[in-house]
Amino acid sequence: MTINWREQFAQRVGRITGSQIRSFFQLTERPEVISFAGGFPGSSFFPSQDLSRVLAEMMEEEGRAALQYGPTEGNYELRAYLAYKMRREGARCEAEDVIITNGSQQGLDLLSRILVNPGEPVLVEEPAYIGGMGALRSCGGVPVGVPMDAEGVDPQRMKNKLIALEREGKKPKLFYTVPNFQNPTGYTTSLERRRAILELASHYNFLIIEDNPYGALSYEGPVPPSYKSLDREGRVIYLGSFSKIFVPGIRIGWMAAPAPLLEKVVLLKQTADLCSNSLGQRLAYRLSQEGYLDEHVRRLVSLYREKRDLMLYCMERFFPEEIGFTRPKGGFFIWVTFPGCYPEAKELLNKALEQRVAFVHGEGFFYNGGGSHCARFSFSQAGKEDIYRGIQRLGDLFARLTGERVPAKAAQG
Hints:
CATH architecture of the largest domain: 3-Layer(aba) Sandwich
Strand content: 5-15%
Oligomer: single chain
Number of strands: 14
CATH superfamily of the largest domain: Type I PLP-dependent aspartate aminotransferase-like (Major domain)
Distance between the termini: 70 Å
Largest sheet: 8 strands, mixed
Shape: globular
Order of helices and strands: HHEHHEHEHEEHEHEHEEHHHEEHEEEHH
Number of helices: 15
Structural class: alpha/beta
């Protein structure tokens, strides 16, 4: 008898969808394509020589322990160090409040499985990080987008959403946010709005999942205090990661959460993978404790700032004037908005690929429609020459589509 696999799958499998960004990876690996699609760290910035040195020292001094299984909660020294770093930023946190995860994405998955029931509304930014929405939707959560502007999520609009949901007999338990240099817009939520959203969380009794992979990559001064540091009721769950500030290949992230929740996270993680990468945890701790990682982040800030500035300069010079774009103060992303008279961003992407340039069209960052004339550009991975050539090619393309002979701003300067 032939197996009908659709009959074999659990019902929850139907809620799992692929990542729009991941679908581009095979294409953008082609050497002739200049890719502004993936939000990857710059591979040329990886500290390969320093990693080789520290790994050799570590294997000589603690090789057997580094290669063995570890506790589900994670390496205690690393957890204590991360708690110390969070206390320095104003958060109430001890080693016992921290669990190490396989990147912050695993933290999102575990939290969704513990906190989200099928059909429950979950507040998210609009537009929102695709991986965050994917984790929530895989457990049956229904994302409810709250529009953003340059100051982050609008608290009044969030309140309006909450009131509307309340009238329908629905009560969100969660708000998922990337408050610093948000993926995909690059926006940072202001301190005033963070405080206002915490007040809403207290009044309407929902939790906040604060995902902060980019906060250390600030190019124009310090970011506002974290939700975690402003929290006085224990309703903020914090997710951090070494992927953007060190190397993603070790897959080390962490979660800081209240004890009752962390207890369930530990139990669920035991069913998923028993423990995170022991070797990677010890490596991250050594480099952090020695002060190397802080110095590496300072170098990254300088290098990524140059790339951001170059992409913004090229967009100003080569893009037609009617195309808008954000000016992020950190992170990896610039959010581009095309006027309604342009083709949809999907079509623009297909035409860009003919010019051997890739970006991510915006529809995947919206749950219930939107983003058809928006796109995310990442400046983190492409080299400077590719940034210049790629944006120039797109500027020429966009100008041809609008009937202009040359991009407006290029003609001026």
